[in-house]
Amino acid sequence: xxxxxxxxxxxxxxxxxxxxxxxxxxxxxxxxxxxxxxxxxxxxxxxxxxxxxxxxxxxxxxxxxxxxxxxxxxxxxxxxxxxxxxxxxxxxxxxxxxxxxxxxxxxxxxxxxxxxxxxxxxxxxxxxxxxxxxxxxxxxxxxxxxxxxxxxxxxxxxxxxxxxxxxxxxxxxxxxxxxxxxxxxxxxxxxxxxxxxxxxxxxxxxxxxxxxxxxxxxxxxxxxxxxxxxxxxxxxxxxxxxxxxxxxxxxxxxxxxxxxxxxxxxxxxxxxxxxxxxxxxxxxxxxxxxxxxxxxxxxxxxxxxxxxxxxxxxxxxxxxxxxxxxxxxxxxxxxxxxxxxxxxxxxxxxxxxxxxxxxxxxxx
Length: 364
Description:
Order of helices and strands: EHHEHEHEHEHHHEHEHEHEHEEHH
CATH superfamily of the largest domain: Glycogen Phosphorylase B
Number of domains: 2
Helix content: 25-40%
Strand order of the largest sheet: 8-7-6-9-10-11
Distance between the termini: 37 Å
Strand content: 5-15%
């Protein structure tokens, strides 16, 4: 039996468990807004993991400025006993009235261990647990697509104030005038006088990488179709080298923004673009959040739909193979057949289709 939630008027502190990086945070925005709508006057602190490497983004880099979190607690993935004791002490000192679990769907044993830790640490009421009816994403039998991560997280909060991922502003990053001005300064005059096409050719893991030779062919063929357009690149600092090689195939101006802007400033830059071409990753979700259409090149490591960008304005290229949902970061047996079988022709056709459409205003 689920424990009854305390009267919202008596809730003073809420701890929100949401590990992940850039894209994980963006898709959690509607769920975080549902939490904020339920306990608008409570202090809301997010418990999340520390970034493990330069390709990961701390959750604060997205949430700061949204008003959805007033503080953060961090833990190290695979923390030892001393690390867990330190985390337990911090949670007890915060003394939450409610713990909101927004972790991804996981194996039952791992969920059991997490819940055991939290139950031994705090007497808070729990909400959002990925168990029972909330243990799995739903599947649409008509399309064979699975419920998006954003919708899944919101559904798990069924005991809170009503909220939908289609609510206007659900994914709003509430970008500040300073962030917008910084992005505009980085782009200079190109966004005022040229069509801007954005790319995010980097990938956090090999299984998601469409690979550089295909990107080179795409950029060369797209340059022939849009010789007067400007190209901007979004990504981590380590991705700048690939961008420089791709830039050699472009005819118009190129601005490499990899590592030059914060994630929120990158979102402001993406808002100036006609579209983004990207792998499944953080930039894709940033673009969707600011209403920029995406041509998304997906591997099949996750089931279709779960991590697709929100909204109908995008074109997702996903090859469904028998091994879909493998969760692999490196694919050896199939040589990444799911993503490498997506052709340059397909990506170019999707890109030209979206470029030919009028840009819709407003975020997804």
